[in-house]
Design a protein that fits this description.
globular, 511 residues, 4-stranded parallel β-sheet, 20 helices, Biosynthetic Threonine Deaminase, domain 3
Length: 511
């Protein structure tokens, strides 16, 4: 079976448009993690992503009759640009369906490459269904982003290059969305270089392969986070899932190691900075995901003196997102911790607190007078030794009789509460919810109209970070309404949400 995939990969036509991307040394990461770390620079492709390989291999092998019909796909990013570029190269009409929430930078990029753009729906699923409908209505050929043999084979050419570029490779780390990239890479290596371990890396907000391994089937994630939008897929592809479970040619196990490494938003942000510091390139979150997973794998296993390659798979970064990534990087690198701490409400208490930290630098301090005996402060502290020092600080303050809550892993605290600190509302009937809003002008209006005028909005916080969806924190006073009536109204709005009324940061600083 693997021999079939190797033949397909060897026959792929990707080099009509793609470059053989360099395998660059990463001296800073290598020194820091005591391994020989290499970066496979797919961010240097003509469309700044590996997706061109699979898209072109699929489209270039269409028959003359199929080419005359034109092609269509659904994508919010890199696959869209790969299809548009391929169509332009081959003189084929391309129609790209993109969600209405797609950032203008990506829409413009597709148009510049000669693709016709149709905006439809607030998410990929809506765009996908519409694309299939248009394909049937207009007799166009649909080009899948990952669940296709020729697309997988095109992505697999990366492994062919890796074997030539580093003959004694030990590990390859691959970001996983729908699974086309890892299926192609692992299929080639599993047959030609079975000694190489292929490690799957996923965002912990879209770990569909991990879920499939755990359940033994292609289960669907109930919700997908969109920070690493290039891998924001709720269900692993059918064909990729079959491929990654195939045995290696030497019988030593499956072609992809069964333990998936999952990474947080903060860890991905730190990896974006790592890539920048190595080669001054700014990659998108999904593009840095393999680097984040490699770092985490090394820390968890303690492995040293190995040759490791991470596929830097894309660089279609929205510039507006950089401020958010920069803000989160310190936490992702373990260089900052954030805490909620009770200190006495009296003169000199802040000085005493600083002294208690024994010379550690405070990076952030949020406080507002409330007239009580104890003041609740939100504090950031610079770290030198990561998680170990984080715990040391917590224990140090606790031993000095401070009441401390570590909020460093609390997404709500990092994303919203640190910007809202200013006093407690004291509303007994307030409930707190986190919503994901599509980034379009009518989204808030639609939310308010569907919510109606029965619930008073007691808190609202929103920040635009350049992603397709924005995170919104909203407090509602429920009044005389029952739990069932509240949930019915919230469900009817149609946006993903979660009840976070029990969040510790909210309880300590805002409730």
């Amino acid at each position: 079976m693997l021999a079939h995939w190797v033949r397909r990969i060897l026959q792929a036509t990707v080099y009509d448009v793609a470059i053989e991307s360099p395998l660059d040394k990463a001296p800073r990461l290598s020194s820091r993690f005591n391994n020989n770390i290499l970066l496979k620079r797919e961010d240097l492709q003509p469309v700044f992503s590996f997706k061109l390989r699979g898209a072109y291999n699929r489209i270039s092998q269409l028959s003359a009759a199929e080419r005359a019909r034109g092609v269509i796909t659904a994508s919010a990013g890199n696959h869209a640009q790969g299809v548009a570029y391929s169509g332009q190269k081959l003189g084929i009409d391309t129609l790209i369906v993109m969600p209405q929430t797609t950032p203008e930078i990506k829409v413009s990029a597709v148009k510049r490459l000669g693709g016709t753009v149709a905006l439809h729906g607030d998410n990929f699923d809506a765009a996908y269904r519409y694309a299939l409908l248009r394909a049937e209505q207009e007799n166009r050929v649909y080009i899948p982003p990952f669940d296709d043999e020729l697309v997988i084979a095109g992505q697999g050419t990366i492994a062919m290059e890796l074997v030539r570029q580093c003959r004694d490779l030990d590990y390859v780390f691959v970001a996983v969305g729908g699974g086309g990239l890892i299926a192609g890479v692992a299929a080639f290596l599993g047959e030609v270089a079975p000694h190489v371990k292929v490690i799957a890396v996923e965002s912990d907000e879209s770990a569909c392969l991990k879920l499939a391994y755990e359940t033994g089937e292609r289960s669907v994630l109930p919700q997908v986070g969109l920070f690493a939008d290039g891998v924001a897929v709720a269900q692993i592809g059918e064909l990729p899932f079959e491929v990654v479970q195939l045995p290696k040619s030497d019988g030593s196990g499956p072609i992809v190691e069964p333990e998936v490494v999952t990474c947080s938003t903060d860890e991905i942000c730190a990896a974006v900075k790592d890539v920048f510091e190595e080669n001054r390139s700014i990659v998108e979150p999904a593009g840095a995901l393999a680097v984040a997973g490699m770092k985490k794998f090394i820390e968890q296993t303690g492995i040293t003196n190995k040759n490791m390659a991470a596929i830097v798979c894309g660089a279609n970064m929205n510039f507006d997102r950089l401020r958010y990534i920069s803000e989160r990087t310190e936490l992702g690198e373990g260089r900052e911790a954030i805490y909620a701490v009770n200190i006495p409400e009296r003169t000199g208490a802040f000085l005493e607190f600083c002294r208690a930290l024994q010379g550690r630098a405070i990076t952030e301090f949020n406080y507002r007078y409330n007239g009580n005996a104890l003041a609740q402060v939100f504090v950031g502290i610079s770290l030198k030794s990561g998680a170990v020092e984080r715990k040391e600080i917590h224990d140090l303050l606790t031993n000095k009789q401070y009441i401390v809550d570590d909020l460093s892993d609390d997404e709500i605290a990092k994303l919203h509460i640190r910007h809202l600190i200013g006093g407690h509302a004291g509303l007994s009937d307030e409930r707190l919810f986190r919503y994901e809003f599509p980034e379009r002008p009518s989204a808030l209006l639609s939310f308010l109209e569907k919510l109606g005028q029965d619930f008073n909005i007691s808190l609202f916080h929103y920040r635009n970070h350049g992603a397709a969806n924005g995170s919104v924190l909203v407090g509602l006073q429920t009044g005389d309404f029952s739990e069932e009536q509240l949930i019915q109204r919230l469900d009817a709005i149609g946006y993903p949400y979660s009840d976070i009324t029990d969040n510790v940061g909210y309880r300590l600083f805002l409730k």
